[in-house]
C-alpha cells in the first residue's frame, strides 16, 4: 500500500543531475549521400560538455560516431536563435563554429590513404569578435557553400546588415544578393538553374509575412536579378523545398493554415496553388532558419509535420495520413532517405531520439537510444485537455499530475501545481515526456503546460488572438486553466505557481502583477520592461526589435499600454514571491531587465531571489547551470508552499 506523505515531499529517484544528463538533445538532422561518409547526420547539444553542440553521424552499420572532436561547437548566432550550422558539399563538411562564428571546412577523405583532412577556416577572421556571423548553410554550385551573412555595423544591438553569400572552396566570399533585412539561405534547384529563398522586413516576423524570392543562376554560380514570386500581402511562407520533379514548393498560409503549395518561378505567373487544402498546420514559426516541416517523398507524396506530428500528405488523393502516432512531437528537421522519413521525435513516454520511419506502414526504427530514464512508474504521462475560459474560448493544455508508485498525498490535501507558460510567445507545448516536469511531479507537484492564445499549431486565427493583447490573453488563459484545476479539486488554489522562460517569463511576471491567481512565480531570462525591449529601447536584438509592436501596439501611440503591461512598472501589484534566473551572456533577453527587477524588489518585503549564471546565453546549456536552476526552483516552492525539500540546497530569499 502506498505511503501517505505531504505533496512535494515524496522521495524521488529523479535528481537534477539526471535531468541535465538526459538533456543531450539532437538537432539539425540531414541525410548525407557522400561516398566518404554516408548516413544520417545530426548536431547534438551536450550539457556535460559545457553545452557544446557536437556533430554526429550514424553509419549504415548502426554505429554512431562523432564527426568533430571537442572543442568544435557547431552553432551560430544568425538572428541570435541560429540557423542550419552544417552541410556537406562535394566531399567536404562545412560548418559554423560558435567561438568565432566563422565557416570552417573538413575534407571527409584526404590523401592517398583516404584519411580525413584537418579542419581549416574558410571565412576570414572578423576584425571584431562575432562581428561577422554565418548561418543557414546550404550546398551551392561548384563546391561552394551558400549561407546568410550577418555583419555588425554599429554599437547598437540592432546595427546588423545581412546578405546572401557564396563561400568558395578556397575561402573567397562573394555576395550574392540582399533583397530584405532578414533572409534565409538560398536553395539551389536540382538542375542548378535557380535559387530560391525567403525574405522579410520589419515590422513583420516570419510568421506574419514573408516574400519568396527566385533568381536565375549562371554557369559561374552568380545570381541574376532577384524577383519576388509569391508571399507578401499578409501571407507567411515558412519553408521552401524543391519537389522531386524540380518544381518549387512552399508552406504558405493564405487560408490561415500553413499548407503545401506549388509556387511559380516567375513574377506574374499564376499564383500559389495548394496541393491539397487541409485544415491543419503543416508548418510552424521560423525561429531558426533552415527548419524543415516538409520533405518530398516523390510520386505526389510528402512527409509533413501536422501540428508537430508526422503525417504523409497525398496530393492526388487529398489525404493526410498520420504516421508513428506514438511519437507526438517532431523537431522541424525532417529528411528523406529512399522511402523512409528520418527525423527527431519524442512521445509521452520517450525523450527526443533520432528515428527512421517507413512511410508505407509507419514502422519506427530508433537510430539513437533513449537516455537512461527513471523507472516508468515515476514518470507522469501528459493528459491532453481543452479548458474553456469564462467567455467560452477553448484553451489547449497538457496536464502532468503528480506520479509516484509508493506515495500518495493525504486525503484532505490537494497538490500544489505549476502552470508552465511556453516561450515565444509564438510557440507551443507538446504531449511528451519532460524530465524537467518529472523532477516535480515525482515529488508530488503537478504541472500543466498551457497553449495560451498566440500559440502555434492551431491556425493563424488562434495565433493572432495575441495581437496587441500580449500580457492580457496569455495571462488570462493561464489563470483560467489554474482556476479550473482548483475548482475541480485537482490543484490546491493556495499553492499554484506560474513558471516560464523568455516570453514565458514575461507571462509569469505579468500574471504575478496583474492577477491574484498565482502565489509564486519562477521567471527565467525574461522580458520585464516592454518599451525597453524594442530597437529604440536598446535591450533587444535585431530579429525581435519590432516584434513587440504587433504584440502590444505601435509606439508612441500606445505608450501607456506598454507601461501598464510591463511587470517592471507594476511592482506595487506583485502578489507573491518570485525567483529570477538569468544567463549573463544572453543577447535575446539581456540581463539588464532581470537585474533592475531584482534591485527594485530590495526592501519591498516581497520574498525573492535572483540567480545569475556566468557564461549562459538564452536558455541554459551547461549541466551545472541546469542542476543549480532546477534545485533552486524546488527549494523555492518548498519555502513558499511550506514543505520540506531534503537533499536540495537551501535558497536564500531576500525581502
What can you see in these coordinates?
The structure is a single chain. The strands form nine sheets. An eight-stranded mixed sheet has the order 32-33-36-35-37-38-39-40, with helices on both faces. Strands 14, 15, 16, 17 and 18 form a five-stranded antiparallel sheet that branches. The protein starts with a strand and ends in a 14-residue tail after the last helix. Helix 4 (473-487) packs across helix 5. It is α+β, with helices and mostly antiparallel strands. The chain is globular, with a radius of gyration of 24 Å. A hairpin with a 4-residue loop joins strand 25 and strand 26 (319-322). The longest helix has 19 residues, at 623-641.
How would you describe this structure in keywords?
32% strand; 655 residues; 13% helix; single chain; eight-stranded mixed beta sheet; five-stranded antiparallel beta sheet; alpha+beta
Which helices and strands appear, and what pairs or packs with what?
Blueprint: E1 3-4, H1 16-21, E2 25-32, E3 39-46, E4 52-58, E5 64-66, E6 86-89, E7 92-96, E8 103-107, E9 120-121, E10 132-139, E11 145-152, E12 160-167, E13 173-177, E14 182-183, E15 187-188, E16 194-200, E17 211-216, E18 227-231, E19 237-242, E20 248-252, E21 259-263, E22 273-274, E23 294-298, E24 301-306, E25 309-314, E26 319-322, E27 329-330, E28 335-337, E29 340-347, E30 350-358, E31 364-366, E32 383-388, E33 394-400, E34 407-408, E35 417-421, H2 435-441, E36 446-450, H3 460-463, H4 473-487, E37 496-501, H5 503-514, E38 520-524, H6 547-551, H7 559-565, E39 578-583, H8 591-601, E40 608-613, H9 623-641
Parallel strand pairs: 1-34, 35-36, 35-37, 37-38, 38-39, 39-40
Antiparallel strand pairs: 2-3, 3-4, 4-5, 6-7, 7-8, 8-9, 10-11, 11-12, 12-13, 14-16, 15-16, 16-17, 17-18, 19-20, 20-21, 21-22, 23-24, 24-25, 25-26, 27-29, 28-29, 29-30, 30-31, 32-33, 33-36
Amino acid at each position: 500500500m502506498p505511503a501517505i506523505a505531504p505533496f512535494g515531499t515524496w522521495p524521488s529517484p529523479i535528481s537534477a543531475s539526471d535531468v541535465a544528463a538526459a538533456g543531450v538533445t539532437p538537432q539539425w538532422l540531414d541525410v548525407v549521400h557522400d561516398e566518404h561518409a554516408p548516413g544520417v547526420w545530426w548536431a547534438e547539444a551536450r550539457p556535460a560538455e559545457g553545452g557544446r553542440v557536437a556533430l554526429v553521424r550514424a553509419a549504415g552499420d548502426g554505429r554512431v560516431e562523432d564527426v568533430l572532436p571537442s572543442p568544435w561547437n557547431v552553432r551560430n548566432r544568425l538572428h541570435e536563435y541560429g540557423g542550419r550550422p552544417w552541410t556537406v558539399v562535394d566531399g567536404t563538411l562545412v560548418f559554423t563554429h560558435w567561438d568565432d562564428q566563422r565557416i570552417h571546412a573538413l575534407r571527409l577523405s584526404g590523401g592517398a590513404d583516404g584519411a580525413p583532412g584537418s579542419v581549416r577556416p574558410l571565412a576570414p577572421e572578423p576584425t571584431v569578435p562575432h562581428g561577422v556571423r554565418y548561418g543557414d548553410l546550404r550546398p551551392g554550385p561548384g563546391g561552394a557553400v551558400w549561407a546568410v551573412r550577418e555583419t555588425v555595423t554599429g554599437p547598437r544591438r540592432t546595427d546588423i546588415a545581412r546578405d546572401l553569400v557564396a563561400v568558395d572552396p578556397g575561402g573567397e566570399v562573394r555576395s550574392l544578393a540582399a533583397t530584405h533585412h532578414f533572409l534565409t539561405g538560398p536553395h539551389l534547384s536540382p538542375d542548378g538553374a535557380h535559387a530560391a529563398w525567403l525574405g522579410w522586413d520589419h515590422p513583420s516576423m516570419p510568421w506574419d509575412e514573408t516574400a519568396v524570392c527566385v533568381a536565375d543562376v549562371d554557369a559561374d554560380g552568380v545570381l541574376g536579378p532577384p524577383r519576388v514570386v509569391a508571399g507578401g500581402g499578409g501571407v507567411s511562407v515558412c519553408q521552401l523545398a524543391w519537389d522531386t520533379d524540380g518544381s518549387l514548393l512552399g508552406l504558405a498560409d493564405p487560408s490561415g493554415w500553413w499548407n503545401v503549395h506549388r509556387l511559380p518561378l516567375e513574377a506574374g505567373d499564376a499564383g500559389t496553388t495548394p496541393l491539397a487544402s487541409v485544415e491543419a498546420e503543416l508548418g510552424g514559426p521560423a525561429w531558426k532558419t533552415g527548419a524543415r516541416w516538409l520533405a518530398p517523398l516523390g510520386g505526389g507524396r510528402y512527409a509533413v509535420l501536422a501540428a508537430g506530428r508526422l503525417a504523409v500528405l497525398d496530393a492526388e488523393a487529398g489525404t493526410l495520413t498520420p504516421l508513428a502516432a506514438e511519437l507526438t512531437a517532431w523537431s522541424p528537421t525532417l529528411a528523406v532517405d529512399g522511402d523512409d522519413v528520418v527525423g527527431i521525435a519524442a512521445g509521452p513516454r520517450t525523450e527526443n531520439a533520432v528515428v527512421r520511419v517507413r512511410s508505407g506502414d509507419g514502422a519506427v526504427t530508433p537510430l539513437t537510444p533513449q537516455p537512461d530514464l527513471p523507472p516508468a512508474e515515476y514518470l507522469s504521462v501528459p493528459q491532453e485537455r481543452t479548458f474553456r475560459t469564462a467567455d467560452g474560448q477553448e484553451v489547449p493544455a497538457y496536464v502532468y499530475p503528480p506520479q509516484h508508485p509508493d506515495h500518495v498525498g493525504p486525503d484532505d490535501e490537494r497538490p500544489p501545481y505549476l502552470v508552465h507558460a511556453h516561450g515565444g510567445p509564438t510557440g507551443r507545448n507538446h504531449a511528451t515526456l519532460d524530465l524537467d516536469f518529472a523532477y516535480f511531479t515525482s515529488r508530488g507537484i503537478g504541472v500543466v503546460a498551457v497553449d495560451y492564445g498566440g500559440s502555434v499549431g492551431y491556425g493563424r486565427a488562434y495565433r493572432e488572438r495575441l495581437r496587441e493583447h500580449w500580457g492580457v490573453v496569455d495571462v488570462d488563459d493561464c489563470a483560467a486553466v489554474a482556476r479550473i484545476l482548483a475548482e475541480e479539486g485537482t490543484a490546491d488554489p493556495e499553492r499554484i505557481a506560474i513558471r516560464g522562460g523568455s516570453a514565458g517569463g514575461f507571462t509569469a511576471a505579468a500574471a504575478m502583477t496583474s492577477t491574484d491567481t498565482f502565489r509564486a512565480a519562477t521567471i527565467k531570462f525574461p522580458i520585464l520592461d516592454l518599451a525597453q525591449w524594442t530597437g529604440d529601447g536598446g535591450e533587444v536584438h535585431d530579429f525581435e526589435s519590432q516584434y513587440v509592436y504587433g504584440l502590444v501596439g505601435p509606439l508612441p501611440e500606445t505608450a501607456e499600454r506598454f507601461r501598464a503591461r510591463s511587470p517592471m512598472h507594476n511592482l506595487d501589484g506583485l502578489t507573491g514571491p518570485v525567483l529570477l534566473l538569468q544567463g549573463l551572456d544572453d543577447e535575446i533577453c539581456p540581463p539588464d531587465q532581470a537585474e533592475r527587477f531584482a534591485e527594485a524588489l530590495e526592501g519591498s518585503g516581497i520574498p525573492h531571489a535572483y540567480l545569475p549564471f556566468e557564461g549562459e546565453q538564452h536558455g541554459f546549456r551547461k549541466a551545472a547551470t541546469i542542476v543549480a536552476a532546477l534545485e533552486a526552483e524546488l527549494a523555492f516552492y518548498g519555502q513558499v508552499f511550506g514543505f520540506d525539500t531534503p537533499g536540495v540546497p537551501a535558497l536564500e530569499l531576500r525581502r
